[in-house]
């Protein structure tokens, strides 16, 4: 009986003190604000005080397909990965509760010796889901990635998508 009195409050306090996918400060920049086919959020994690930059951009693949790409990197002079790779790795991001298979690779900034992660949906179905979600959402989309939950802005996405030129002919 005494053991239950000790362990039940202990388990409850541990449960509430462990923050899963916790994100602290967030500063969004919408598609409409940036007017360059991208949106971003500067954020900090509850477990890491170094500010990060989570960005999405409408761009074209090497084959000319219009798509949506995500980048994650530190605001300060820190790398989120350590080498440049053209071979993607598989990972998962969660968009408004739906897990989406993603391709991830490490890229080097063109003007510094810093590296960042770039991601894009791995399947056509995932690509359509993410793009449609951004088009129909009226409130920020909850994106879970790398133990962080980010409220990502959607204002201006449809205009940016429609202005990006479509698939190359």
Walkthrough of the structure:
This protein is an alpha+beta fold. It has one domain (26-162). It has four helices and nine strands; from the N terminus they run αβαββββββαββα. Strands 1-2-3-4-7-6-5-8-9 form a nine-stranded antiparallel beta sheet.
Strand-helix topology:
Blueprint: H1 2-17, E1 23-29, H2 31-34, E2 38-45, E3 48-60, E4 66-74, E5 89-95, E6 98-108, E7 115-121, H3 124-136, E8 141-145, E9 148-152, H4 157-162
Antiparallel strand pairs: 1-2, 2-3, 3-4, 4-7, 5-6, 5-8, 6-7, 8-9
In short:
Helix content is 23%, strand content 43%. With 169 residues, the chain is an alpha+beta fold. It has a nine-stranded antiparallel β-sheet with strand order 1-2-3-4-7-6-5-8-9.
- Write down how many β-strands occur, each being a DSSP E stretch of 2 or more residues: 9
Gap between N and C termini: 74 Å
Question: What pattern of helices and strands is seen along the backbone?
Answer: HEHEEEEEEHEEH
Rg (C-alpha, Å): 19 Å
What is the average of the pLDDT values? 83
* Total number of domains: 1
Low-confidence stretches: 1-21
Major sheet:
9 strands, antiparallel
Structural category is alpha+beta
Q: Please state roughly what percent of the residues sit in beta strands, choosing from under 5%, 5-15%, 15-25%, 25-35%, 35-45% or over 45%.
A: 35-45%
Q: Please give the count of helices.
A: 4
Fraction in helix: 10-25%
Strands in their spatial order, largest beta sheet: 1-2-3-4-7-6-5-8-9
Oligomer state equals single chain
Principal-axis shape equals globular
